[in-house]
Amino acid sequence: MKRIRFLILPVFTIVGIHAQSLGQERDSIYMFNGQVLIGNVKEASLGTITIDEMDLKLLTIKLYKIRRLRIVHHFKIETVDKKLYYGLINPTDKDGWVEIETGYGKVAMPITNIFSLISLDKNFFRRLNGNVSAGLSYAKSSNIGQVNFSALLQFATRLLDNQLTASELGSIDSGRYSRDNESLQLFSAYQLNTSWFVTVVGQYQRNLELTIARRLMGIGGIGNKVVVRDNWSLFAVTGFAFSQERSTAGVNSGLLIEIPFMLRFNLFQFRKPDLQINSTQTAYFGLTEAGRFRADGNTSASWQLIRDFYLSLSPYTNFDSNPPSASSSKFDYGVVFSLTYKF
Questions:
Q1: Domain membership of residue 246 as a residue range
Q2: Run of H or E including 269
Q3: Biggest CA-to-CA distance, the chain
Q4: Which of 1, 45, 88, 241 lies at a 20 to 30 A Cα distance from 308?
Q5: H/E element holding 18?
Q6: Over 80: is that where the pLDDT of 128 sits?
Q7: Do 31 and 110 belong to one domain?
Q8: Residues 273-323: pLDDT tens digits?
Q9: Is position 83 within any domain?
Q10: Exposed/middle/buried for 301, CB within 10 Å: 0-12, 13-18, 19+?
């Protein structure tokens, strides 16, 4: 009898654990076409929502296609009218609407009014999202074809948003690989309220066309969400920039202080055509080098091909009125064609 109990107990334990896992609540998306998706919502931004579906894995769904939405995990919810909530999302009797359940009450709104969803899950990896790109390009700096690579990684907490971006343009000439243009940037923003935020930026740059072998820069400042709409947004940032440059000739600049003015623009249009545009334009006004003016611009336009793969066209510009070498070019530009995978 003891042996029988010994054998039966593990069986009931396994069955109990399996039943408990099946009984765990999941997020659910009901679409207007009748399709139902069950899994864990990761995030929402730029008019889309991403769900880790139980059978189909990661899927990105356009908000206007959702009839009912239920999220059982806690999220940071930002709306197009610059309001901020923390809580759960439940469906309502009205198609295309949701009810946000917070600790202070309930708020109903159209699903398309959601500007962003950021998971407050304790699991670190559930808060991560981003993309990687690779492709071919043309740049004035080399006047030959180039290969390119770029990546973006985002991680957020209750009040802090972090974005890490990296890119490299390289050319191969006579069997020699040249790192022509590189950038690595960490952008962190701490929310003061629904419109204002404090930001800290750390950046590394390399641009051989402007004779910059290395630029290390830190920016501290304040930003504002100037415009937030259902299909586009515009953020502005200003403050002080502290940098140190090293030219391709090996000359160090010493400490440079500038006043930056940054605009970050996002546009998403999913109904004929399916298009996403992201652009960051930054102007720098020199203080330690009076009269020096610099400008960096990066824009990306993406068309969805299949599910998580996009075709991207990304023009960029760099201008420096007083580059380290007087004989170097003051202006650099390029156009990058790439295939992007978003996760």
A1: 129-342
A2: strand 252-269
A3: 93
A4: 88
A5: helix 2-23
A6: no
A7: yes
A8: 677 888 999 999 999 999 999 999 999 888 877 767 888 888 999 999 999
A9: yes
A10: middle
